[in-house]
Amino acid sequence: MSTISISSIPCLIVSGGNASAPSSWVSGPRDWQLGSLPELAERVRSFALLLGEDENANKTLTFAFELAVGAHRPADVEATRARFLDRLSEVNQDYREAARFIPQGKEPTLEFHAPGQGRFAGYDVRLKRRYVQSQA
User: CA-CA distance, 117 to 46, in Å (whole number)?
Assistant: First the structure.
């Protein structure tokens, strides 16, 4: 099995435009990389954006990360989430502007999954991964 440098993996940009087109949600290394947050770069193998709504019809966004083999989730997930969202705001104007309208307590969350578990179960390496998924 070949290895991929984590800094070459495209990452998690929520942008404007046609939300039904996955390319409008996932952007390449020119915008931002997991490598800009070492606590994630060392741990993450893949990711997915989970879109949904809560019981009050507020939009929800979760960044799900598949951990690398032998990696563990960060000890302080809340601190990692805060750094992650701060960095996303720094590098992506669309997210930065949209974040101004997110109700307090409804900010995006992070999930961490063991390799091949949770949202990442059943992937066939011959097929393209689903980077945008429904929260349900």
Answer: 12
